[in-house]
Amino acid sequence: MTKPRRTGCRRTRQRRLPELLSTACCQCAAKRRHRSLADEFGDGFCRAVRPAKHVPHRRPSLPCADSARLSKKGRKGSDLLALAARTQFTIWGIAIAAFLAAMWLLGDVILPFVIGAAIAYCLDPFADRLERLGCSRAIATGIITFLAIFAFCVTILLILPTLLNQAAGLVAAAPMIATDLQAFLLERFPELGDANSTIRRSLASLGETVQAKGGELLNTVIASFSGIVNLMVLIVVVPVVAFYLLYDWDRIVTKIDSLLPLDHAPTIRRIASDIDKTMAGFVRGQGTVCLILGVYYAVALMLVGLNFGLVVGAVAG
């Protein structure tokens, strides 16, 4: 197989050949002249007429007044930078404090929007995945919202009543469970049969304590949901806020990104990306683990015949 001819390189060498030949001839003539001078006058004369070595150019030093003025300008510039950074930290600190104060004072009003934003943040990866599969953003948001509302309704209508009934039954059966536990321990550990034993007295009062405190806790939980207005507001407003935030999530992120200062934008993007990956992985991972464990324990314990398997699964999950 023949190699391609490099005609361009050959032409370049042919053009430069006369120049290279003249340079070589000049160097040979200079060497012959140097050798003849060395034969006539000795090596000392040749060393004397040899050209001096090239000394690199050095920048002349400034007078003391100019250097002092420049150093003063440098210190002034550093002071201005430090002042600017200090001012930025102060402004950001005031803004964060004002934001937290507003969140604290307007907690009941902002709560639906905060919950909606959290839901949109958690569901955004699923919307992006549906977009990659060919769906538009509106269709992906509609599908996710429908599935979320369906799961919420199933939970409220089917799971929540059963969970409350089992919790009430567990509180009512607490004294009997404590008695059975006491009999089991006395059978296994006869030394606990002493009536004055601290463990025996603790076991005897365990049932009454659980029944009393459990009833109070259940009443508190029910009373916390007695505000029907707040509950209806949450049920109605949160899905709407989550839908619109999920639909415009990419636009919101792009708008916030355009407001970043140009000098610090890459650093802020990198830090925000690291925070997003870490926090999203933790929240979604923990939520997934809790859901899987809760469903597993509830279904497994109910299949083996445990009366309060759903409560145990919810608490364990």
Written account of the structure:
The structure is a single chain. The protein is built from eleven helices and no strands. By secondary structure, the protein is mostly helical.
Properties at a glance:
317 residues, mainly alpha, 11 helices, 84% helix
What is the residue-mean pLDDT, rounded to a whole number?
Answer: 72
Low-pLDDT residue intervals, each spanning 5 or more residues: 43-66
Order of helices and strands: HHHHHHHHHHH
Q: Provide the gyration radius in Å.
A: 42 Å
Helical proportion, percent range = over 70%
Q: What gross morphology would you assign?
A: elongated
Oligomer: single chain
End-to-end separation in angstroms reads 72 Å
**What portion of residues belong to β-strands?**
under 5%
Q: Given the helix and strand composition, which structural class is it?
A: mainly alpha
Biggest sheet, in brief? none
Secondary-structure blueprint:
Layout: H1 7-41, H2 43-49, H3 64-105, H4 107-132, H5 137-172, H6 174-188, H7 198-224, H8 228-247, H9 249-258, H10 265-303, H11 309-316
Quick structural summary:
By secondary structure, this protein is mainly alpha-helical. It is built from eleven helices and no strands. Among the domains are: 108-259, no CATH class; 260-317.
